[in-house]
Amino acid sequence: MLLGQLLDFVMVDEAWYLNQYPQARESVARGEYPSAKEHFHADGYFKGYLPYPVAVDEEWYKSQYRDIQMAVEAGNLASLQQHFASHGYREGRFPNSTVAARLSALLKGPAQQTSGKINIALISSPSVESPAPATTRPARKATGE
Asked: Which DSSP symbol is given to 125?
């Protein structure tokens, strides 16, 4: 399966992941999965879990996503880092200019938003040099928190 092969390249921060996701920690503790990485591959990825903390450049994030900027101005978002972890990652938003530039280079053109979270995981992962290109889709409205 292609997705499984791609996920093999995604770095998983074991300690962070298990601390961040209690359900994963409990599953690993019960022996359902031998590690956080195995949990991420089999379950966490499909639940929208991040494999490791991703730094969000809040000023850049606001400047790229008008709906996010409007939500911040209206006081509907307390933290852009939290928005990315809870919604932006699943929506295919980029957390910072470095990730956006890396994907744009792979796509050979500007990448406004990706078709899914695999791109963020792969493009952000230091263990991957050239993941498969993704398609782009139009920006979505912000899901406020």
From this structure: -
Look up the domain containing 28 and give its range: 2-47
Burial of 15 by CB count in 10 Å (0-12 exposed, 13-18 middle, 19+ buried)? Answer: exposed
Average pLDDT across each block of 10 residues of the chain; the chain has 145 residues. List them in order.
75 94 97 96 89 90 90 88 84 86 68 50 44 38 45
Q: Which H/E stretch holds residue 23?
A: helix 22-29
Could you tell me the pTM of the whole model? 0.64
Number of domains in the chain: 2
Token pair for 39: 């949990």
Residues 63 and 31 in one domain: no
Q: Are residues 77 and 21 in the same domain?
A: no
70's tokens: 């409007």
Residues 6+ apart with CB under 8 A from 86: 143, 145
| Cα separation, 89 vs 111, whole angstroms | 15
**6 and 34 part of one domain:** yes
How far, in Å, CA of 72 to CA of 82, rounded?
12
